[in-house]
Amino acid sequence: MADPVSRVPLNDGWRVTTPAGPFARFTGEQPEVRDVRLPHDAMRDADRTPDAPSGGSSGYYPGGVWRYLRSLDVPGDWADRFINVTFDGAYAGARVYLDDVQLAHRPSGYARFHVDLTPHLRPGHTQELRVDVRTHLDSRWYSGAGLFRQVHLTVAGGVHLAPDGVTVTTPEVDDDLAAVEVVARVVNDTRSVREVRLHTELRGPDGAVLVEVTEPVTVAPGTPAVVRRRQWIRDPHRWSLDDPALHTAIVRVLDDELEEQAAVSDELAVRFGVRTVSVDPYRGFRLNGEALKLRGTCLHHDNGLLGAASHPAAERRRVRLLKEAGFNAIRSAHNPASQVLLDACDEVGMLVMNEAFDMWAVEKTPFDASRDFATWWERDLASMVEGSVNHPSVVMYSIGNEILELGRRDGRLLGRALAERTRALDPTRPVTNGIQMLFLVDVADLIAKAGGLNEFMGGLTDRTGEDGQNFAAGQNAAATTPDADAAVHEAAAVLDVMGYNYAEDRYAYDAEHHPQRVSVGSETFPTRIAHNWEQVMAHDQVIGDFTWTGWDYLGEAGIGGHAYAEDGAVAPYGLGYPNLLAGCGDIDITGYRKTVSHYREIAFGLADGPFLAVQRPERYHHTRPQPNAWQWSDTVASWSWPGFEDAPVRVEVYARADEVELLLDGESLGRAAVGEKRALVASFDTVWRPGELTAVAHTDGQEVGRTTLRSAGPVAEVRADAERAELHGTDDLGYVAVALTDAQGEVVVTDRRPVSVAVEGPAELAGFGTGAWRTEERFDATTCTPHDGRAQAIVRTTGPGTVRVRITAEGLPDAVAEFTVR
Fold first, then answer.
1. What's 6-155's CATH class?
2. How far is the C-alpha of 259 from the C-alpha of 503, rounded, in Å?
3. CATH of 607-710 among 2.60.40.10, 2.60.120.10, 2.60.40.2140, 3.40.50.300
4. Could you give the CA distance from residue 36 to residue 308 in angstroms, rounded to a whole number?
């Protein structure tokens, strides 16, 4: 007998193939069928080619069509039950079938949606669940494809909770008392009016029952009953960034007409946090009444070596590492976050700006979501809000990103409609929109009035200017004109928080011209964080900064990578094949912090430094990189460059200090002022010799900090270090850091001998690779070339036992990382 009520993952037992078409049975041609476990990215293992239709936007991955199949055993006692499948996302244009009968269609690949199987089930039989997806020229970044997010099966009684039908908010909270409002939608799928009871139980973070109530509910067939109840918790344990305490609301539908013991017709456990959120132009953003600035990052949805698959363990690791690097907020760029990412933010203590759309009715790519916007925007917006409302980490909704029509009448009408619909769905969170000011004005007219592009825009399209900053200066110049201000006025008026993309000069402008306007740097250049953060801290009405980006991602290949004239690279936007990654993340796709991450930590005021970064000596005499404002210097935290003895090299030191002295084996190489060319940076031109390189920071003539890099000797071993020794269950992820080191453990960044991986025990290799933005290597391969001496292996558990990950490299002893799976 099946469980009378259950909500279980439906991630095992799937097969994936390419649709063969109706005539395949006559030709005998059948495509390969592979067994997969969800979440699964069907595009990650496709062949990349220089002529891929979407080019660098997708990282030179092709589009395609895929079919997912799964057998579904239908017990006989499901005849009078409600059976639903929830997809947290299926990229893209998903069509869901049961035994070849189409039950649902969802154009958006990021929308969470529910499919009611009940009318089409044949109890006592095995039926086939099928999902067809496709992707083409529909994304400006690597989208992935397929069932890349979680799928769940719900079994409930005829009177049940609607999918996503329980919301929990905390509208009033103080030190003594918290109001917890639980709203439940109860659905009656039977043929008669039913009288049921709704039992609600609130539990604290320790699991103790704090409140429980039961109330009668009469539900007519086909008309959901909305049950709204405000309950009160004494001495509430609030959710915060430092103490992300989670409560649980357990909601049960009790139906005395059922024969099962306890008469439970449906049951749902919802985690929530007791906390308040507010914004105003005088105290900024406040969490639980305490003001804080959002140290934010824009974040694409892919998980690097895993492709677009959204694994709980991967999302939790990513959020944890971002927090350790100094971030406290994420903007889900540019689509709704997965439920497991929001779960991770709830658990770790990370704030979220959840974003609905990258475009409205005007397209950015030939086959993007604008084609379906008019038909689907209300349902897609509702999907995002319904999936967000119970997550305390979600503190703001964004209704768009750089919407092209926002300066027109149709765009202004849509903006108001979207903002008001969002508030109707959830009045507890502020609404923003990431606005690119350049799209609101007649740029050609402004250039003509100023006498030329360079004269007015400060070199807007010249990304090859000094450190790429002319591009940023040009955007700011355009953003602070009276024409731009007038064009954005209505778009800003419909928002609770004005989002500025690449327009930080608006902060001072708004303080003078719009003192009641609350704003946020919804997207900013990573190279300008010191300047930007100074402006954020100087203006109370500016609540934070979201850099592009904190974590590197697949696609938009090379926008932050390094292009040298000798390589034949082309600037300004993106780089050609075989570039794969954007290259602009503070943290690379393996989770390794790049030098810019440590600079940002100092800019945020979370560290003083000094931090040592060394530009690659092999590039010193090359034509300088073609920079842009997304691109940090081509530096590595290493003083190990064998083969470049006495070659010139540039050293950067990041510090919150007046000046820095550089020492090599105790001998002074000179002093340099901090901030002479770039804020918080001192630069030195010297020559490379092995030894100990030390940076000593001074303020007011006194030493305030020092750090050292030591040269590595010859490679002596390949290391394989498990991030955590213990894994849990049949679907956990184990991460192995691979490095080529000398006898003392120093990483040898110049050694590029291939490393190979083999997995023994109850796990499978889920991904193997590096953070190199330019590569032709595959993440499903068992051999890769280290990048700056490092690589990463990821295993996915299949059961309990001991897992050994063996790493081999020519001429070196094998290394083994071991996990215990419980």
1. mainly beta
2. 64
3. 2.60.40.10
4. 15
Cα dist. 290→278, 279, 283, 287, 522 in Å?
10, 11, 9, 5, 21
Cα-Cα-Cα-Cα dihedral sign, residues 557, 561, 478, 329 = positive
What is the percentage of the chain residues whose pLDDT exceeds 90? 86
Show the beta-strand stretches assigned E in 292-389. Answer: 294-299, 329-332, 351-355
Within 10 angstroms of residue 673's Cβ, the number of other Cβ atoms is 13
In this structure, are residues 68 and 149 in contact, taking their beta carbons and an 8 Å threshold? no
Confidence at residue 454, expressed as pLDDT on a 0 to 100 scale: 41
Look at residue 461 in the predicted model and tell me its pLDDT: 39
The fold of 294-441+481-551 is TIM Barrel (3.20.20)
Q: CA nearest 579: which of 62, 42, 57?
A: 57
Torsion, Cα 423 380 152 350, to 10 degrees, reads -50
The closest alpha carbon to 779, from 494, 506, 589, belongs to 589
User: Residues 41, 66: contact at Cβ < 8 Å?
Assistant: no
Kindly tell me the sign of the dihedral angle through the C-alpha atoms of 144, 150, 153, 154. Answer: negative
Which pLDDT score, from 0 to 100, does residue 529 have?
96
Q: Which helix (H) or strand (E) holds 507?
A: helix 506-513
- Contact at 8 Å (CB) between 697 and 653? yes
Q: In what order do the strands lie in the sheet with 611-615?
A: 635-636, 611-615, 648-654, 681-687
Query: What does the alpha-carbon distance between residue 78 and residue 405 come to, in Å, rounded to a whole number?
Result: 49
CB burial of residue 235 (10 Å; 0-12, 13-18, 19+) = exposed
SS3 42: coil
Spatial CA neighbour of 224 closest among 297, 265, 141, 165: 165
Low-confidence ranges of the chain (pLDDT < 50): 453-466, 571-572
Q: What span, in angstroms and rounded, lies between the C-alpha atoms of 596 and 634?
A: 10
CATH of domain 717-821: 2.60.40.10
607-710 shares the fold of 159-272: yes
Distance CA 317, CA 15 (A): 28
What angle, 0 to 180 degrees and rounded to 10, lies between the N-to-C axes of helices 312-324 and 339-348? 40
Task: Let me know how many helices (H) and strands (E) the chain has, helices first.
Answer: 12, 45
Interacting residues of 27 by C-beta distance below 8 A, sequence separation 6+: none
Q: pLDDT value at position 439?
A: 81
Structure token digits, residue 571 = 């600037």
- Looking at this protein, which amino acid is placed at residue 820? T
Cα-based angle 160, 179, 427 (whole degrees, multiple of 5): 75
